[in-house]
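Last lecture ended with a question: if I hand you only a sequence, what can you say about the shape of the protein? Today we answer it with a concrete record. The protein is Diguanylate cyclase. Below, first the input exactly as provided, then the predicted structure, then a couple of comments.
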Amino acid sequence: MNRGFMEKHYRRIKKWSKLFYPQHKLKYYPPKFVLRDPVLERVYFALSGGQQVAAIVISISNLRELSQQLESRQLSDYKSELKAAFKEIFDESNYKDDLLVVHDYYSEGLTVFIKINDDKQSVVHIESLLRTLTPKLERWMYTKYPYFQHSFEIGYMFVERDVGTIQDALYAAQQQAVAMAEKRIQSRYIETLLEMRDIIQKREIKLLAQPIIDLTTKQIRAWEFLTRGPENTSLENPLQLFSLARQSNLIYDLELLVLEKAFQLIERVGCKDDVFLNFTPITLGNKRFIPALSNLLERYEEILPNKMIFEVTERDSIEGLTFFQDNIKQLRKMGFRIAVDDTGAGYSSLHTISELLPDIIKIDRSVIQDIDTNRVKESMLKGLILIAKETGSLVVAEGIEKKEEADVLMRNQVDLAQGYFYAKPGTLEKGRVALL
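The predicted structure:
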């Protein structure tokens, strides 16, 4: 055994031995990590036992958007839930013995460190593991946050045993895995952008209509127009369509197309009832919106602004939108009315209502569902009705699916209602709806 070989291993042993020094001995050798670090500790022992270690980065492509939607909840709380869910999924799989640690390690997503015996085909093993676990994590995410359209991208890299300190080796592997995940995210983003641009350019959307019923007269008082994407595609689902439009920064273009399609439909069928259209604050707060709306009104002369209601979704924040309040004032001067949608579904209802003083308050389905068997929900309804009286707003209850719910609304003198109990969305044809 030559001298150079011995010196190399002596230096390595001396470097690692610092990790085991008593704390008072470390003042001259301050390490970046101590052994109590769960990542460093578990990776070190796996490598020392002759196993390979891989860093797998799970990057959530629209994690920042989710953190904004959660509002009062911190991103760290969400990530803790995600880590716990992943650990549980791992523990229930055939790979539970491979897991070393799940960590938010230099990353906005998660980094999973796994160990692999040298006698296994490492890459094949990881790919098999990911094919098994990723769909389960996707299902957890969809169940936990069904309103949030997300996507995972994954990159992985092996920790090199003989490169620098263990901290350096871990960091290098993790950053390389992040880079792989981000390349996949970027590739998906470009595909999404091109797909959304194509839909908007080809105007491949259609509008359905759902009647809104006057609870006193049982007559149709208004219609809500609902958007659908290209038929027989995943983007026919409006949640998918608008989620991708937001992530590709094309939400304004899509919603302006929806507005023009709505004007065309109203003129074509001769609709004389009120029409509700849902818009994000992003669009209503865009400085181009009022000029664009004015141009459409010139082209579609039969459109009466006093028959149109712009719904502002309560789930979106109106904070920080420079032109939003001025645009709302302009819309009202032009004769349009404003509704706050999804009231009761999130955290900012009262703030949005107090800022906008809407003409109409739409109560979310989450409040209405099973209200006939839930006194707390009926109390919430009464509170929202009281607020509506203070602001001079009409009340529309959404998502009514059974007679018992409708009876509670009647008892509490709710103005208007919509839901499958009355009619499902369909195509509007000459003042009537052809149900799907």
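Comments.
1. DSSP finds 15 helices and 14 strands in the chain.
2. The first strand starts at residue 52 and ends at 60.
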